[in-house]
Write a structure and sequence with these properties.
The protein is mainly α. It is built from 17 helices and no strands. Helix 1 runs antiparallel to helix 8, helix 3 runs parallel beside helix 6 (130-139) and helix 7 packs across helix 15 (334-345). The termini are close together.
Length: 420
Amino acid sequence: MTVAPDAEPAQDGEPRRQRLALTFILVTLAIDAMGIGLILPVMPDLIGEVSGGTLADAALWGGVLATSYAVMQFLFGPVLGSLSDRYGRRPVLLVSLAVMALDYLVMALTQSIWLLLAARIVGGIAAAQQATARAFIADISTDAQKAARFGLVGAAFGMGFVFGPLLGGLLGELGTRAPFWAAAGLATANLILGALVLPETVTDRIRRPFRLARANPFGAFAHVSRLPGVGRLLIVYFLYECAFIVYPAIWAFFTQARFGWQPATIGLSLALFGIAIGAVQGGLIRLILRALGERGAVLYGLAFNFCAFLAMALVQAGWLGLVLIPLTALGAVVTPALQSMMSAQAGADGQGELQGVVASTRSVAMILSPLVMTGVFFAFTREGGGVWFPGAPFLVAMALMVVCGVVYVARPRAMPAPAE
């Protein structure tokens, strides 16, 4: 059990400072998600402004910017996680927020595509603090609380992805730079809140030396994978993320091809999806965990997502697609349960490293999955392609759910016991 010294369980008697700190962490993660969503509506116009190219050129640059951001998160997730194991969660989180605020200011002012690329690289490094944020949650939580609290992380991201694009679209009417000023303001305000309420949870009892061999993602992967059952769970986590990324990767293209939706309807569907994710990971997951336990919740989530992907691949009516998209969130209990199971296997002094590896695993999925999913979509929707089937990427995601299930149940004895 990993919990901060003198900390009580996070129930009614939980210290006020710990509740404020948890709120700060969730707000930080929500702002991370909002920051991405805020700038998405204006990125094509902004790239066009600073590069002078066409919309097609802007799309290519957009892919380069997104990939560079994800690559930096992959590389620096374990670095920041291990730094937080050595120097503490508080300094890593606060410095990352300060860098993030400055990064948004640079993007609000830049007139160069290369400076914009540099800002995205720096932003990816700062955003790698998500691993440290999760490690902080592990520090202040008992083993029984971890799955539900990691569910709150998903809820925070879900809310960020709901309000980010909506707010970014409205601010975009004021100019391409307005969303960046807003993102910088949000990051600065949260930095001030963190400086006031965030305690340090790394004590001398769990502090450990910083070693580059374990701070780089490859060395960290090698070390963490040796923990009992964690290597197998990381594989399941990676495959699951690759499958679930099908939604942000091809949703706008799929719904336009299959249903003829316009941007307003696409935005509404994404908002419904984010709200549903927040409801499931912020509340409903507690009921599922109570009924099924962590291991049962993973199996339920994989089976549910298998059915959801199949339904989405075959649906023909737009109204039914609009109904299905929030329902698909009911299977979004897998990642919190997996994170909790892996956290239980890591020592109190290794939570930062573990969460860094988890963050890097997701970053690899974010690098690879969109390329695969959009490639499959292109192959089944291009002119002269033979078979027109825009739902094909969802069948790929469905197949990945089968592989996840096989890997997960192949050696049940290697799996950690569910938290009671």
